[in-house]
Amino acid sequence: THVSYLCDLNRHLVVCLWMALCCLWGGLSIPDPKYRETLMEMEASMQTGGQVVLSEKEKLLNSRLLQMKQEEVMRKDFPPAVHFFKARDLIEESPLFSLLQKVPKGAALHVHDFSMTDVKWLVKNVTYRPHLYMCSTDAQSIRFMFCSQMPKPLPRCSPWVLLEKLRAMTVNVTELDDRIMKNLTLFTELDPDVVYPTQDVVWERFEKAFRAVSDLVSYAPVFRDYYYQGLSELYADNVMYLELRTLLSEMYELDGRTHDLTWTLKTYQDVTRQFTADFPDFFGARIIFTIHRGVNSTVMDQVVKTAMKLKRDFPDFMAGFDLVGREDRGRPLWYFRNELSLPSDKGLPLPFYFHAGETSMSGSEVDQNLLDALLFNTSRIGHGFALLRHPVAKEFSRKRGVALEICPISNQVLKLVDDLRNHPGAVLMAEDHPLVISSDDPAMFGASGLSYDFYQAFVGFGGLRSNLGTLKALAINSIKYCSLPAQQQEKALAMWQKRWDKFISENTQ
Ligand SMILES: *[C@@H]1O[C@H](CO)[C@@H](O)[C@H](O)[C@H]1NC(C)=O
Ligand SMILES: *[C@@H]1O[C@H](CO)[C@@H](O)[C@H](O)[C@H]1NC(C)=O
Ligand SMILES: *[C@@H]1O[C@H](CO)[C@@H](O)[C@H](O)[C@H]1NC(C)=O
Ligand SMILES: *[C@@H]1O[C@H](CO)[C@@H](O)[C@H](O)[C@H]1NC(C)=O
Ligand SMILES: *[C@@H]1O[C@H](CO)[C@@H](O)[C@H](O)[C@H]1NC(C)=O
Ligand SMILES: [Zn+2]
């Protein structure tokens, strides 16, 4: 007897397998091991990187890599199963992690402005600069301002104190610095599940920390250094290109003068040029202009028009537009359908890079964001955590090649998933859905660069079957799905390939 199997192998290919099941086994009903092998190979070839052909040297490194992963899985505290705040030290002592740091990872396509740079640097460098005032809010957070004189008091905040003076009067400065640092990040050495029992609590702290960092970073001289330092951290982690989501906040000077958002955009461009001049093997950066999704239609109308103008004036530096803030609390994309149609109506193209599906509220109005983002022709999807619950949106995103920007650690810290082996990325990587790995708000989560998130994707939801081909495909994806025009992508890819070859030869001695 013959059994026919119709396997809808990915996209277009339809593979039919005809196999004789029983006769080969002398009447026993054990399934044919050869057939079993064929199916296993088929599955392996469907995953992200499943089609990558490894060179001899790459195969050598791959066996080492898989050996290391095997050892990782045997660990008593398997890091992807543990909250990142407790797992970070475990990850750092892993030899596999050290190797992942060296991997040329391509581009970081989902990172936010005020959480791209290490908070230790903020405390040790920025808060030690002169003219910095600090106050403590009623809600146990802190605010800052650089000012040539005592600033006007803020509502619901203690009187301002000059930090320099406060430090001079403080017995234990280490402890003070520690308290300041804790206000600038979500990372904690305490039990994260006790400190952040719910999504509401963790998001509230997140927005407070973001606020405090923005006070420091919106001071024009700090802003330049902060961004340069952030690029250095990515570069040190072997990332070569960035698409940064930024609010383009007004920047201020010591005397209270402010600069508008065009100044901020230009400064990003200047510092990027400076950085690529200093490090020619860093490819560069572009920005995605963002607005908080809590605004009303009147404000959105203005902002979309501004975004269209910026895109026209800075076509090579500005990638597009996005909405930020907690999806579950903000307005859904459909609420802004009139404003978001403006670019298309007016024939002034403005590519979208919408956050969507960063929610566990299945079936809610906000849960429609995924489909709506696609209907508005989004170029990529930020997170797309809920994609598996939307088969139509999923098919749409695959067919149109709209990549998901998966940020594993962010999803865990913001309480969408506990054990990263259960992240939806496991399914999406198993079937080579268009996706890239990114870090969202590394400084808020106590991470930096992309390596920690690559670790979670590779060891956590990549499981034992993801391999060197997977890493290669993820890096290539990050260039393939970035906003650069085709010609520039080719250049970036050539630059990446050179770094990759060097990485392979240096690690197969
Ligand atoms: C702070 O950083 C700037 C630029 O990154 C550097 O020039 C300066 O020396 C640093 N200052 C301190 C106190 O570390
Ligand atoms: C200062 O505080 C830090 C952190 O809380 C602590 O480790 C250190 O022992 C303290 N130093 C002194 C001299 O009390
Ligand atoms: C933030 O700073 C304030 C004032 O120093 C302090 O009371 C509070 O404990 C800090 N918050 C955190 C989360 O450490
Ligand atoms: C929209 O928000 C802005 C800024 O918060 C406010 O000034 C304006 O009155 C609001 N407009 C409407 C129609 O609610
Ligand atoms: C999205 O793209 C389709 C096909 O190119 C086009 O017809 C439609 O007008 C676009 N919609 C928006 C909102 O840009
Ligand atoms: Zn984000």
TrEMBL record:
Q: Which UniProt keywords apply?
A: Hydrolase, Metal-binding, Secreted, Signal
Q: Which Pfam families match?
A: A_deaminase, A_deaminase_N
Indicate where this protein resides in the cell.
Secreted
Write out the coiled-coil annotation as residue ranges.
Answer: none
InterPro entries per the record?
Answer: A_deaminase_dom, A_deaminase_N, ADGF, Ado/ade_deaminase, Metal_Hydrolase
Keyword Metal-binding in annotation = yes
Q: Known SUPFAM superfamilies for this protein?
A: Metallo-dependent hydrolases
- Catalytic reactions of this protein: adenosine + H2O + H(+) = inosine + NH4(+)
Its primary localisation, in coarse terms, equals secreted
In terms of CDD domains, this protein maps to: ADGF
Cellular component (GO) terms are:
extracellular space
How would you classify this enzyme at the top EC level?
hydrolase
| Example GO BP | inosine biosynthetic process
- List residues of the Adenosine/AMP deaminase N-terminal domain: 34-100
**EC number(s) for this protein?**
3.5.4.4
Q: Which residues form the Adenosine deaminase domain?
A: 198-491
Q: Name one GO molecular function term.
A: metal ion binding
Cofactors required: Zn(2+)
**Family designation:** Belongs to the metallo-dependent hydrolases superfamily. Adenosine and AMP deaminases family. ADGF subfamily.
Q: Which PANTHER family match?
A: ADENOSINE DEAMINASE, ADENOSINE DEAMINASE 2
Protein name (record): adenosine deaminase
Originating species: Periophthalmus magnuspinnatus
